Amino acid sequence: MARAMFEYTKTVLEKVSFNLELFKKELEKAVNRLLPYEVKELYVWLQEFTFNKPDLHKCLALVESNKRSL
To answer: How many CB atoms neighbour CB 69 within 10 A?
Structure first.
């Protein structure tokens, strides 16, 4: 079940990536709901996903700060 949530999170983030505020909101929800190892995995995925999207690149800080506290 947890793996399904991770995949769902990625799908949602891809769909809302056109809007920075929606993207941030969904990313915050994801960080709060996913398991610690999934947050780390999400960070890696986000690095790749936001590589050519400089406006979303700053959202990495949301996950990075949460990842450090784990």
So the answer is: 7
CB-CB contact of 25 with 38 (8 Å): no
d(CA 1, CA 51): 29
Q: 39 and 63 in contact (C-beta within 8 Å)?
A: yes
Q: What tens-digit pLDDT sequence spans the chain (70 residues)? A: 568 999 999 999 999 999 999 999 999 999 999 999 999 999 999 999 999 999 998 888 888 877 666 5
Contacts of 30 (CB under 8 A, 6+ apart): 9, 12, 13, 39, 42
Phi, psi angle pair for 12, to nearest 5°: -60, -45
Confidence (pTM): 0.86
